[in-house]
Amino acid sequence: MNLLESNWTLVFLVATGLSVWLGLVWLHLRFWERRIALPLHYDEEERIDTPDGAAVELRRIAPTNGAASDQPPILMVHGICANHRNQDIHPKYSLARHLAGLGRDVWLLTLRSGLSWGFWPIRRDLGFANMARYDIPLGVSHVLKRTGAKSLDFVAFSMGGMLLYASLGTTIKEESLRKAVFIGSPGRVDAPHPIVKILRFYPRWLVPPILSGLGARMFAFLSEWFVTPLHKMIYNPRNFAKSIIRTALVNCIQDVPAALAADFLGWATRDGEIRLDGKRVLDQLAHVRIPALFVAGTVDHLGTESAVRAGFDAWGKEEPDTPKRFMLLGRSCGTQEDYGHGDLCMGCHADLELFEPVQKFLSELGPTDTLQESV
């Protein structure tokens, strides 16, 4: 056998081995997706193309108590590395279905970052700015058009709230929102460790996508066996039903597109300020008059209390009559467990400790209420 034949043999063996490995990975994913996945019914589902060539999805959960509320529809928006199941993971742990069960017309928006764009999501139009420019206003306008309502209630988790900070007053009009709820939505992005600051000058175009969705589905079957420091960074294991962890990993977690990862890395490694077109998004909230509820967890390492308070403080800063409330969830505040990030929407006792206060706020708080704050 000459050298050329030897090289081709090596190439063939490597290609064959890689093909077999990829095949086994695919079979592994399909097996556990079928075994763990929890499909849920939606009354309506629609994919909508955005003006810049991407897409979003809307899903409706119609009122389920037999008599629809006379209150406006609710638009719910998920966080980073997630999809619409973020606030609708399981009938028992679903803020969306909790509200629908009380007669509200609930719509779940899946941002472009929450869709599957292939194995390697490197598209550069999947960043924060385009979601603020197109996805949020498209979701708002579409729900208003479909329902005939003049305004809606906006309920956001984590990045969904950050997008509203950036969109309000620029791509969506204040009068299109009646009330807003921010669950774990930071007003600034702080580096988890000072060493991250060394990446400040890392070229944006070299930032890779984060294959969190692939990793979540690959190792979902192991999630009940052990807890790592990474788990504790994302949620409080003591406040999570083990079966829900597996369901969330398969049904909810998505890859983070490269452009979006670059946005968050840029904010975290500089001054922490969320910027759109070079401008601080919190600055444009000073004259907002929309009643708002801000929720934070005592052990949330992603949307920390101080980061969420940054949004709270900026909201209607120059309008002292703007009704707003800050709610902190943790044992020191009377809840059964301390709340991390993920458990703000899927915690063991979220139905009583979070869903009920959110429902009460959306039902009772009006423009004439005075400012309230609880800690």
Structure description:
With 375 residues, the protein is an alpha/beta fold. It has 2 domains: 1-36; 42-364, Alpha/Beta hydrolase fold, catalytic domain (Rossmann fold, 3-Layer(aba) Sandwich), CATH 3.40.50.1820. The chain has 11 helices and 10 strands. The chain has an 8-stranded mixed sheet, with helices on both faces. The radius of gyration is 22 Å and the shape is globular. 46% of the residues are buried.
Structure keywords:
375 residues; globular; 36% helix; Rossmann fold; disordered C terminus; alpha/beta; eight-stranded mixed sheet; 2 domains; 11 helices; two-stranded antiparallel ribbon
Apparent shape: globular
CATH topology of the largest domain, by name, is Rossmann fold
The number of E-state strands comes to 10
Per DSSP, the total helix count is 11
N-to-C SSE string, H for helix and E for strand: HEEEHEHEHEHHHHEEEHEHH
Major sheet size, sense and barrel closure? 8 strands, mixed
* Overall mean confidence score, pLDDT: 88
CATH class of the largest domain: Alpha Beta
Instruction: Assign the CATH superfamily of the largest domain.
Output: Alpha/Beta hydrolase fold, catalytic domain
Task: Evaluate the radius of gyration.
Answer: 22 Å
Q: Beta-strand level of the residues, as a percent range? A: 5-15%
Tell me what the CATH architecture of the largest domain is. Answer: 3-Layer(aba) Sandwich
Number of domains: 2
Poorly predicted runs are 367-375
Please state the structural category: alpha/beta
In spatial order, strands of the major sheet run 1-2-4-3-5-6-9-10
What is the CA–CA distance across the termini?
A: 77 Å
Q: Tell me the helix content.
A: 25-40%
